[in-house]
Design goal:
Keywords: Cytoplasm, Kinase, Phosphoprotein, Phosphotransferase system, Transferase, Transport
Largest sheet: 5 strands, mixed
GO biological process, one term: phosphoenolpyruvate-dependent sugar phosphotransferase system
Helix content: 40-55%
CATH topology: Mannitol-specific EII, Chain A
GO molecular function: kinase activity
Radius of gyration: 14 Å
Shape: globular
Number of domains: 1
Subcellular location: Cytoplasm
Distance between the termini: 10 Å
Protein name: Ascorbate-specific PTS system EIIA component
Oligomer: single chain
Structural class: alpha/beta
Length: 142
């Protein structure tokens, strides 16, 4: 499932960003470009973190930006941004942002399960955080 949801065209790597908000905006660009999401979804992800804190930081250096399913989402998709230098996300250093755009409450569950299984292995996690975007893509898509 991840192979379909996260094509290489949805993966970016840059050195640094000025803010976590900018990181979410940049990470979302492939989904906007290919019509998976609308600009409202990006705004909702940022607003959600502003209101609820850094709940999207699931592990050290790893964040899963998302917002309410269906609101501004045209179809299920993912995009990944890898930063060389960590960005501060409300007190948490983050180098990998994996944007999840879900069109309903259930369609993304399989993808989350796959990501969880990959990241549960410490070697995979280290490669995910420290590897190249090619390494990450290979890890996620097998």
């Amino acid at each position: 499932m991840l192979a379909e949801l996260l094509p290489k065209s949805h993966i970016q790597e840059i050195k640094s960003v000025a803010s976590w908000e900018k990181a979410i905006e940049l990470a979302s660009e492939p989904l906007l470009k290919f019509g998976f999401i609308e600009e409202t979804y990006v705004k909702n992800m940022i607003k959600s973190v502003e209101q609820n804190g850094p709940y999207i930081v699931l592990m050290d250096y790893f964040a899963l930006p998302h917002a309410e399913a269906g609101n501004g989402v045209n179809r299920l998709g993912m995009a990944l941004l890898k930063l060389t230098e960590p960005v501060d996300l409300k007190g948490n250093p983050v180098t990998v942002l994996l944007v999840l755009a879900a069109e309903d409450a259930d369609s993304h569950i399989g993808a989350l399960r796959e990501i969880s299984q990959v990241l549960a292995d410490e070697d995979n996690y280290q490669q995910f955080i420290n590897g190249s975007i090619d390494d990450i893509h290979q890890l996620l898509t097998g």
